Amino acid sequence: MNVLVTGGAGFIGSHISERLLETGHAVTVLDILDPYYDLGLKERNVERCRDAGGDRYEFIEGSITNDELVRDVVSGRDIEFIYHQAAQAGVRTSVENPKKPHEINTTGLLNLLLAADEYGVERVVNASSSSVYGEVEYLPYDEDHQNVPQSPYGVTKLTAEHYCRVWNEVYDVPTVSLRYFTVYGPRMRPNMAITNFTSRCLNGEPPVIYGDGKQTRDFTYIDDIVDANCSLLETSAADGEVINVGSTGTITIESLATHIVDETGAPVDLEYDDAKEADARHTHADVSKATDLLGYEPTVDIREGVSQFVDWYRANRDWYEPLVLNS
C-alpha cells in the first residue's frame, strides 16, 4: 500500500513509518522540519527510515499548510492511506502563540481532507489528543466525556476531530481520530517531562516539578500507539469514530520523577516550581472502545516503560543527550 505519513520525521510519525516499512508498505513522509526542537533528532529519524525502506521510502520537506503541495503529493504518488501526525505540539507553546497551532493543526488537516476526497484516499487517520477533554467531569475519560479544552492546542485538536467527522459523514471519506494520551519512548521529543527528568538525573541535577506534583498522567508507550495505528490498515470498524489510545493506568508526576531518580541512581532530591498555565490536572483513558473496535490492549505500563527508556537513553546518550540539552 502507498502510505503518506505527515510529520513522519517526528517522534510518533517516524515510529509509524518504520513499522510500515518493516511490513512491506511504501511510505512517503511530508514534514516541514520545524525547529521546535533540535532538528538533529528529526534528521536521524529520516535516515533510520530511509535505511529501513530503501526505495520504498521517500522524504519530502514541506508544509501541510501548502494546499498545492499536499495535492501534488497525494495525487502524484497514488496515496491510498494517510497517517496524519503533523502538528504544532505543546499546550504551553500554544498559550504563548495560539496562531501557529491553528494554522498547522486545523488548516493543514483541512488540506489533507480535501486532497483525500479528490483523489480517493481509502482512509485518513488523524492524531488527536487527550487535550480535547480539558476540564475533568469524571475519570477515566471515555469518548463521551465533555470536551472543554483549556488551551489553544486542545481547541485545534477538537476542531480537527470535527472536520474528520464531517468528511466521513458528508464527503464519504473514511476517517478515524485517535486521542493519544502522553506518548513516550525511544526517540521521544526532548522537551517532554520524562526526557527532561532523565537527562537532569543522569547529569546529577534534580528533576524540577511544576506545581505540587500530585497531578496525574496516563502515559502511553510508543509501541502501543503504533499498534493502534497500524491496526487501522486492516479494519473499517472504526471509520467515523474518535477513539482513546492510552495505557489504562496513571501515575503522579511526583512518583514519576521519584521512579526516574531511582532508575538512574542519581543522588538528588526533587525540586518544585510554579505550576504552568493551561496544564491539565489529571488525564486517564478509558480504552474499552479501542479494545472493542481495534483489539487494542496496551502492553507496557509506565514503570516498565520508563525503565526501558532510561536504558535506551544510556545506550544512545552520546548522540541523544546533546539534542536534549539543545532543545
TrEMBL record:
<dbReference type="Pfam" id="PF16363">
    <property type="entry name" value="GDP_Man_Dehyd"/>
</dbReference>
<dbReference type="InterPro" id="IPR016040">
    <property type="entry name" value="NAD(P)-bd_dom"/>
</dbReference>
<feature type="domain" description="NAD(P)-binding">
    <location>
        <begin position="4"/>
        <end position="308"/>
    </location>
</feature>
<protein>
    <submittedName>
        <fullName>UDP-glucuronate 5'-epimerase</fullName>
    </submittedName>
</protein>
<dbReference type="InterPro" id="IPR036291">
    <property type="entry name" value="NAD(P)-bd_dom_sf"/>
</dbReference>
